[in-house]
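Section 5: illustrative case.
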């Protein structure tokens, strides 16, 4: 199947008289994924085939479309012009070809605790309605790298991705709380001044999920206005393990409210400090370019943005 060349683009670029749709689809996959390697599995072909097809299209257009980099490719201005012209028609054609077919699974990734406590319960109605999910947990940077390689459709991260290649929107603000079980909390009862809180916790064990104490250190700096000098008594793999250890009486920690609110409500944990402005961490929802050709990706994205208003 071929398409006939049309009018010249903004840069004077013209499609060849007969442009093979397969070449244009390959071009768009590379343009959206950022590499020949990432585009190959999405197209169901080998990486050498992708390379050969892009080379053929460049010969037909008489333009270099991608600058080869050590990791991936960078679209040239001609590639941006071509993508603007062919993306909508190719996406529309793909949606027609997919009519009646079962939508592909939505590949979603994010922090394990948030996925379990907030995200998966919120998406259960969509699963009942036929949406298929493939969920991965991990840290922001590795997940974003995997998204750039085409592995994930949507990723929830705790920092906005750098650059313009990945589209992101703020999803929700996560509040953090300084907590311990009731036995330890008695030491801090009635103390609200930063110096008093720090002094009361000086001999209390600290539980954390990383040796560099990112969450606790940030709380000390931004809320208590002090430099954290204590080290961790217990380091565990994830925030679920932190919650379990603190609940069992191993010490104190700083946890996301979404993770520990049930424990606070039941009295199993106690809030050690109630600042006027608790620390917030903004969650961002990132979508892979081209992922919206799967209508279920749009459904998951819309559902997450809707329920996040109540988080």
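Designed sequence:
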């Amino acid at each position: 199947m071929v398409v006939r060349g049309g009018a010249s683009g903004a840069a004077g670029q013209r499609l060849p008289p007969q442009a093979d749709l397969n070449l244009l689809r390959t071009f768009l996959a590379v343009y959206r994924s950022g590499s020949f390697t990432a585009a190959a599995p999405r197209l169901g072909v080998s990486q050498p085939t992708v390379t050969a097809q892009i080379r053929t299209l460049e010969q037909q257009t008489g333009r270099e479309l991608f600058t080869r980099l050590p990791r991936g490719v960078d679209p040239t201005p001609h590639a941006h012009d071509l993508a603007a012209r062919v993306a909508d028609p190719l996406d529309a054609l793909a949606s027609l070809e997919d009519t009646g077919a079962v939508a592909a699974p939505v590949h979603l990734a994010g922090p394990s605790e948030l996925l379990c406590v907030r995200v998966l319960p919120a998406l259960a109605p969509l699963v009942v309605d036929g949406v298929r999910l493939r969920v991965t947990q991990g840290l922001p940077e590795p997940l974003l790298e995997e998204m750039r390689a085409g592995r994930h459709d949507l990723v929830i991260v705790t920092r906005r991705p750098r650059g313009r290649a990945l589209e992101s929107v703020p999803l929700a603000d996560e509040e953090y709380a300084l907590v311990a079980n009731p036995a330890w909390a008695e030491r801090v009862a009635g103390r609200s001044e930063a110096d008093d809180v720090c002094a009361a916790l000086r001999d209390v064990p600290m539980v954390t999920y990383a040796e560099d104490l990112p969450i606790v250190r940030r709380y000390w700096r931004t809320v208590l206005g002090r430099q954290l000098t204590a080290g961790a008594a217990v380091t565990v793999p994830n925030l679920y393990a932190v919650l379990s250890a603190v609940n069992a009486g191993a010490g104190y920690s700083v946890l996301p409210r979404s993770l520990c609110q049930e424990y606070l409500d039941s009295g199993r944990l106690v809030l050690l400090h109630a600042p006027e402005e608790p620390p917030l961490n903004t969650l961002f929802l990132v979508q892979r370019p081209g992922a919206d050709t799967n209508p279920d990706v749009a459904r998951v994205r819309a559902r997450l943005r809707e329920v996040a208003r109540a988080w």
